[in-house]
Amino acid sequence: MSSKPEQKETHQANGAVLPIMPMDCLTSPDRGQLVEPSDFLEPDGDGVEVVVLESRANAKGVREEDALLENGSQSNESDDTSTDRGPEPASPLKETSFSIGLQVLFPFLLAGFGTVAAGMVLDIVQHWDVFKYVTEVFILVPALLGLKGNLEMTLASRLSTAANIGQMDTPKELWRMITGNMALIQVQATVVGFLASIAAVIFGWIPDGHFSIDHAVLLCASSVATAFIASLVLGMIMIGVIIGSRKMGINPDNVATPIAASLGDLITLALLSGISWGLYKELESKAYVNPLVCAFFIALLPIWIIIAKKNAATREVLYSGWEPVIIAMAISSVGGLILDRTVSDPNFAGMAVFTPVINGVGGNLVAVQASRISTYLHMSGMPGESSETAPRKCPSPCSTFFSPDVNSRSARVLFLLVVPGHLVFLYTISSMQGGHTTLTLVFIVFYMTAALLQVLILLYIADWMVHWMWGRDLDPDNFSIPYLTALGDLIGTGLLALSFHVLWLIGDRDTDVGD
Length: 515
Description:
Layout: H1 3-13, E1 20-21, E2 51-52, H2 56-70, H3 97-125, H4 129-133, H5 136-164, H6 171-208, H7 213-247, H8 252-262, H9 264-285, H10 289-299, H11 301-309, H12 312-320, H13 322-343, H14 351-378, H15 397-401, H16 406-416, H17 418-431, H18 441-471, H19 476-506
Parallel strand pairs: 1-2
GO molecular function: inorganic cation transmembrane transporter activity; monoatomic cation transmembrane transporter activity
Membrane topology: Multi-pass membrane protein
Protein name: Solute carrier family 41 member
């Protein structure tokens, strides 16, 4: 009589799981074999009645997995996620040409008006004493604007990729990414800003053979201070844009990089003009101010280095990410040398207002494309992994612009934005009488030809460079954008100078600067 109560107590002690058991509970997790019936015997040898039913939870998991697979989910382990793992990264959105254009249009126009404002500022400050007597400041303009683009757009691309693959979904991950990346760009801005001033001194000394130590220290202080402050302000804006766009369901790749440049050119150029003008005024009476400014920002470097080294996501970039930004700075400085040689010529004086516009628009568009391709590749694996999506050979122009894949579709959309965008920007400059330049049909044709050719070359190079770097085990988010934006500065400035020279040769005097 005591056997039945004892059996009931045993069932309760085991959590009442023995009477009804799922099929997978009859298999050993170690051997994958059926559990022997003896395992279910009582100590006295009496058997326990076992009813085998299919687990509803397991069936539900299978149905959910099938649904995810049908919807093209990237994960094939959706019902086997451990509790300590973070949220699964969101699958890439299927974007049409219309959706891409709609998301890119507003940030593109905003960034374009930012470059227009920067061009208007440059058109005004080129007549200041510091720009007249320390002409090497013109060489700093493309270098620092390009540095801003390199650092902020690389930051935007890096954070956009992290957001798209689920590395910023928890507050802890978000804070780690913010602190590490902000410290990283401060290190890069300070070092590259210092090197940009050295390049400006060298490029200014080579043609004329004239060197002034006071001007060299002035360039150093102005460059380092501008790079540091601009990167700090723009970095915080960039982080807010990426977090906000992610919460609104917008692909950060489409909006982050243009917005990074919307106020970037204006803020950087305004800071450079104001700081250099203020330091130039203090040069005669308080010569010690310029060296102190340089020493202050350089002394902060160890702090930012320690913070960046503590973050695994930025530690690698801190050691290996110098080559692209330094080479890009040198390339942009060559464009600055072209600008320095042309703005002093009355036949090219109108170039000052258009240079930030054509360079900024080209850099913004190619940065969007590079960020999108990089995110697309990150969805398929890690850099260096062999994949059909990462060809190492040089692609054909047809595959870059006319293939059916999403990256080719976005390249077509970005290229089609060039003409209407520049028409709006040219009209804005003309209505504000920027550079006292009259827009003639001949000038618009030459300008649009230069702008289209610049973006066409940049988009093709981006398609090749991002895939090539991916195949070489290099993260395109950190390495491709600095080269592409620097090439945009050089190509844009060169083509614009060539257009002005041809217009001068054919006698289109309406494009000259008036009194």
